[in-house]
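Aim 2 progress update. The chain analyzed this quarter is reproduced below.
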Amino acid sequence: MAGFEDLMIGFNDNGYNTVDSFVDRTKELPTKNVSIYEIDFNPLNDANDSEEDKIENAEKIHEQGMVYTPLHVYRNKSHRHGSDKKYMLLGGHFRLDALLRNAELYPDAQKMVPVIVLPTPENETKELEMILLLNEVRPLQDDDYKRKVELYLKVWNGKAEAGEKPKGIQKRKWIAQRLGNRIGEKKVEKYIHEIEGYERVRKDPNEVGKDEIEQLVIDANMTEPVKEDNESSADKEERKRIVKNLKETMGRSVKIQNGWLCFQFADKSKNIDDFYSILNCLGFDDNGEMK
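Predicted structure tokens:
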């Protein structure tokens, strides 16, 4: 029997309706035909497809004849989400919607569909992760990407609470990869900041002085401040060169001040906060632990 990862090969080749265009006929897939009326939509899937897109997809499927690529489901023995249908859908919401629409309009429309029956997810976090993986196949708008980032952030936090947080990878990179790298890590991080509302790094207004620029100050393993007068001209020039390179590489203000190496991480006037980016650039994870 093919493994779960094997079943996913080829699902990200096409921008619009990849799942319907991919059938791996070289494998013995664990498929079976079931009635479209035995499958329930999963409420954890926040697909947010427009009515226009749904109608267009239904017409497209009707024109091509039928859906050949299996939907992904699990047996709904415990009546999850209050459903009494035999199967709960994991992947293929867009296609199931089209099949149900066509069944109402056309007497000869497809009413039996191939499905791959996957193991029942252990918990809601794993179920949501599978839904996101199996249904992320169409191009999205900015608002849709932000919504997907929010869902993946929920998965990440759920994994973290269960002690299953992915190791050796930054949160923004993990989410970007799950979105097929269709948006960059910086865009993902921007969405994370917007979603979390900067709560993790916001200071009490009474603690903020006139200077609205916060800085992350990194102790450069110096027990005492080094007076600039003690530096040779060569040292000063070399450090200036390094600071310049750091500015260009990190895209933010960097300076040496009284024995400290300082990185700007926030500018409230521009609503920018890159605290965790600084940590990641320096080789630390979001908890300040060395990766």
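The chain is about 40% helix and 15% strand. The longest strand covers residues 260-267. These observations will guide the mutagenesis experiments scheduled for the next reporting period.
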